[in-house]
Specification:
Blueprint: E1 3-5, E2 12-15, E3 21-24, H1 26-31, E4 38-39, H2 44-62, H3 68-77, H4 81-90, E5 96-98, E6 115-117, H5 147-160, E7 178-182, H6 186-193, H7 200-205, E8 223-225, H8 229-233, E9 238-244, E10 250-257, E11 260-262, E12 274-277, E13 281-284, H9 310-318, E14 329-337, E15 344-353, H10 364-394, H11 403-413, H12 415-435, H13 440-465, H14 471-503
Parallel strand pairs: 8-11
Antiparallel strand pairs: 1-5, 2-3, 2-4, 6-10, 7-14, 9-10, 12-13, 14-15
């Protein structure tokens, strides 16, 4: 017996233009996408997974796009309601969450002895992966959860399963940033992300998880290659089966390892930025605990190597001066874990202003990279000052401090966190300046002033925190400030030159 069909049931959380939050089924979400501001959920993993799922549905329903002309036609005319409705009706029996043969995104072949609590589907409740973070729900006897919640978590399991040993392969790229260019409504957002297939043959070969027969067990091969974007966005990294209780909710599931991801040709996930490594080739850029995402913002913008997210590149190609429909902002989200453990370190969901001038000027990436390099180089001067101070203080009494001693001392000085947090707010202002066509020289001058002030204030806070009644400490401070003074001189000279150039007719 089939129950809770996701085409009609309300389970996708969205925000409407009046600020209200409602839940809709697949059909209503897609057909009313111009009336929806965005998908909204407290979990960044749910937000990313729902976008990927809806894109997989669209790739299959639209049978494309397979080139930029098809994509631009969608951008001009919107999503075709008839194709979407026909597709959903064709596969209606595959979208029921509870079904004896084809339960959505599940596998009826998972044996009964693979029983786990529903918490196994989530990063925030899973006792295996959230030992420090998140809410510690009792994984041995958790309360039942609704079908709507479990449907969302099934999708996050596809996109964000992490390595756990014993054949538990991770999702295609669980540690990478996922970038979604947000348009004026959900329809524009989805079309922004519908990067065309490289060719029509790939589209024909592609399929989504729900279109295929459930895989037989044991798996014939532990890993395989993605057929196309729909396959990638609905990857079955875990095999699950929800067990419906008498109340219609879920307390337990069957759960086991699924299909590993093989990517011999390093095909890009459209949502992810990449970098080129001299030894390992092209790798996805990952979140780092020691730095904010904004410090790698240049990697999210189009470049000559096309290593930026294809979603971002595609969005800039769609917009023209006449259409005036560049993305409003860029949503960057995902999680971070440290292999080989299965412990989640953190998750993030950050929103950045989208520089409108990217439509016509791709050199903006280089300019922003230069600004970020300015900040990194200035931090080095702070580090040299900290190292000098630490060395002089620790060597008091004649002992020679070790490198570990110096690192520990510098870390407890806490200069960097204040420096970078001050610049993060300034960086958002810089992005706003790029949307207003302010000159590059004016933007750079403004940024260098922020950098200069952030360094000065960070050092002043440190200076105020130490005792100036001790001669040894005073000497250490004076010696350390030489690198600060040198950098201040350099920054001031560059600012004066930029300001003078702007004043010259």
């Amino acid at each position: 017996m089939s129950r809770f069909n996701l085409i009609d049931e309300k389970w996708i959380p969205v925000r409407l233009p009046d600020g209200s939050r409602v839940e809709l089924g697949i059909r209503e979400t897609l057909l009313r996408s111009t009336e929806i501001t965005e998908i909204e959920d407290p979990s960044p993993l749910v937000v990313a997974a729902l976008h990927r799922f809806l894109l997989a549905v669209l790739y299959r329903a639209l049978e494309g796009p397979t080139n930029i002309d098809e994509a631009r036609n969608l951008f001009r005319n919107g999503l075709p309601a008839n194709k979407i409705s026909e597709y959903l009706e064709k596969w209606r029996d595959r979208f029921s969450l509870f079904d004896d043969k084809y339960p959505f995104a599940q596998n009826v072949n998972v044996p009964p002895d693979k029983l786990e609590p529903w918490t196994k589907l989530t990063a925030e409740y899973n006792a295996t992966s959230n030992k420090v973070l998140f809410d510690h729900t009792d994984a041995k006897g958790p309360e039942e959860r609704s079908p709507a919640e479990c449907a969302r978590w099934l999708l996050t399991t596809m996109s964000f399963s992490i390595a756990g040993g014993r054949g538990y392969y991770p999702s295609p790229s669980p540690n990478a940033m996922m970038c979604i260019p947000l348009g004026e409504n959900l329809q524009k957002t989805l079309i922004n992300c519908l990067a065309p297939y490289r060719n029509r043959a790939i589209m024909i070969e592609d399929s989504a998880l729900w279109e295929r027969e459930p895989v037989a067990l044991p798996l014939s091969s532990p890993k395989r290659v993605a057929l196309g974007y729909a396959d990638l966005y609905s990857w079955s990294s875990r095999l699950c089966l929800l067990e419906e209780s008498a109340t219609g909710n879920v307390s337990t599931i069957r759960f086991m390892a699924g299909q590993g991801f093989e990517n011999p040709s390093s095909n890009q996930d459209p949502m992810q930025p990449y970098k080129r490594d001299k030894k390992l080739g092209i790798l996805p850029i990952q979140f780092r605990e020691d730095r904010g995402t904004w410090r790698d913002f240049d990697s999210l913008l189009p470049d000559d190597e096309d290593l930026a997210p294809l979603t971002v590149l595609h969005a800039t190609r769609l917009s023209t001066p006449k259409s005036n429909s560049m993305p409003i902002s860029l949503l960057v989200l995902g999680l971070r874990y440290e292999p080989p453990s299965a412990n989640v370190s953190f998750w993030r969901m950050e929103r950045f202003i989208f520089p409108e001038v990217l439509r016509t000027d791709r050199s903006i990436r280089r300019e922003i990279k230069t600004l970020l390099t300015d900040a990194e180089e200035t931090q080095k001067s702070l580090w040299l000052a900290c190292k000098s101070f630490a060395r002089d203080i620790l060597s008091h009494g004649g002992r020679e401090p070790t490198g570990k001693d110096l690192s520990t001392f510098i870390d407890q000085m806490s200069l960097y966190s204040g420096y970078w947090s001050s610049l993060e707010a300034a960086f958002q202002k810089i992005l706003r300046d790029y949307t207003q066509n302010i000159s590059s020289d004016e933007i750079r001058s403004d940024w260098l002033k922020h950098v200069r002030d952030a360094m000065t204030k960070a050092w002043e806070r440190h200076r105020a925190s130490v005792s100036m009644s001790d001669a040894w400490t005073i000497r250490a401070i004076v010696r350390a400030e030489s690198s600060i003074s040198k950098k201040l001189k350099q920054l001031n000279e560059e600012i004066l030159k930029l300001d003078a150039d702007m004043e010259t007719p």
